Amino acid sequence: MSSIFNPDKKFTQSDIAKLLGISERQVRNLLNQGVLPAAKGRNGMDPLACTHAYISYKSQAKQVDSKPETPAENEEEDLEIEKKRLANEDKKETIAMKRAKRVLFEKSYGPIQIIVETLQQVSSRLTSRLDGLLPKMKKVWPDMPPEAIEVLEAEIAAASNECADVRPDFSDYMDGDPFGGPAWLVGDEADTAG
Q: Residue 44 above 80 pLDDT?
């Protein structure tokens, strides 16, 4: 501290930090905020002006957004914490991208069980509507010819049986290498060049 009071000394940010009892980082923050006067030319910073500015800053009633003072060793810890946080974000992003690619490659855009249950509900509702169609038509058209009734009964039975016998075609989902993605995406460079 005795070198600080040398009248010929040119004050740097480090010297001002020692004089005010704060970190160099806080001095930089206060300079950026315009609280402390900046160095003028090669003469360095004015210690008296910096002291007055810092005292008035501290005595103000309103809170100024500033970063907390941290000792130099905590800056290294903060840097390590930030590196770990960024590494974790990178890992999360990688996992999210892999999941998105898997959904694209598998072509499964909804849980299979939900799709199956939904189709079963549609099929049962459609069948119950078709079963109720003939009695409603007889009520509205009492003189309906027996041939028309037979045709309607046969068509309703055929539609119900077709709905019950629906089987999905998995050929679109089985093409290509399951580990490398579908053939339409992986493809050879020779095929795309021609």
A: yes
β-strand partners of 187: none
> What tokens does 49 get?
């002006």
Q: Which two tokens stand for residue 93?
A: 């992003």
Q: Write the CB contacts of 130 (distance below 8 Å, at least 6 apart in sequence).
A: 156, 159, 160
For residue 178, give the amino acid letter.
Answer: P
**Whole-prediction pTM:** 0.31
Are 152 and 133 in contact by the 8 Å Cβ rule? The answer is: yes
Q: Which of 30, 118, 15 is nearest to 68 (CA)?
A: 30
Q: Which residues touch 75 (CB under 8 Å, ≥6 apart)?
A: 25
DSSP bridge partners of 45: 11
